[in-house]
Design a protein that fits this description.
Layout lengths: L2 E3 L16 H10 L21 E3 L2 E2 H9 E6 L5 E8 L4 E3 L5 E5 L3 H5 L8 H8 L7 E5 H7 L15 H15 L5 H11 L5
Antiparallel strand pairs: 1-6, 2-3, 4-5, 5-6, 7-8
Helix pairs in contact: 1-6, 1-7, 6-7
């Protein structure tokens, strides 16, 4: 793993689609259903078909790597052979695609236990490959693995300056898909939204 730590705003990735303003996110948060999560024990990642073909040879993962990176060069199968990726969760910059994971802002299992267990497979695929909302993020691989399926009351990005954007994005995705939140999750999201300047 070759990491180049750089923290200037010049390294911030392309702006994710669909991130609401803080005031909109607060309104959306207030509108979410608050209830205990329900784990029916039937979750399986395969129930969320992901990394589907988006365009030509490019799947969802490769599309996000191209979207969120800088100076990306790909081979004929769309795999990035060079480029740079800034991970907003921890402030690290990477130059090898294998060091970068595509994180689902709202993890697939978290979605399952907050309402996606009743969805069709088609809707779960839309959720897992959503490029029109702030759901997919190129981040440091082991940071993504540390987050796993945890909600914001259980895990937050180490870069506190990103907490505002993280909360706005999480809320926007849950709101768009009508997913519920727990009371602890709502409290944590509210606290993070209170760090927003706009």
């Amino acid at each position: 793993m070759v990491c180049l730590h750089q923290y200037s705003t010049a390294n911030l990735p392309h702006t994710q689609p669909g991130i609401p303003s803080a005031s909109t996110a607060k309104s959306q948060l207030s509108a979410l259903t608050v209830k205990a999560s329900y784990d029916d024990g039937l979750y399986n990642r395969d129930k969320f078909p992901h990394w589907i073909t988006i365009s030509g040879a490019c799947n969802t993962r490769e599309t996000v790597l191209k979207r969120d990176g800088t100076n990306i060069v790909t081979d004929s199968s769309c795999y990035p052979t060079s480029g740079r990726w800034y991970s907003p969760y921890d402030g690290a910059t990477w130059t090898v695609a294998s060091d970068v994971d595509i994180d689902h802002m709202v993890p697939l299992k978290n979605a399952w236990i907050s309402g996606a267990n009743t969805w069709t497979t088609s809707k779960r695929s839309d959720f897992a490959n959503d490029l029109s909302r702030p759901q997919l993020w190129a981040v440091t691989d082991n940071v993504n693995q540390a987050k796993s399926d945890q909600s914001p009351d259980q895990w937050k990005p180490s870069l506190t300056s990103f907490h505002c954007t993280y909360a706005k994005s999480w809320v926007a995705v849950k709101y768009a898909y009508g997913l519920s939140i727990t009371s602890a999750e709502k409290s944590s999201l509210s606290s993070m939204l209170n760090t927003c300047s706009s």
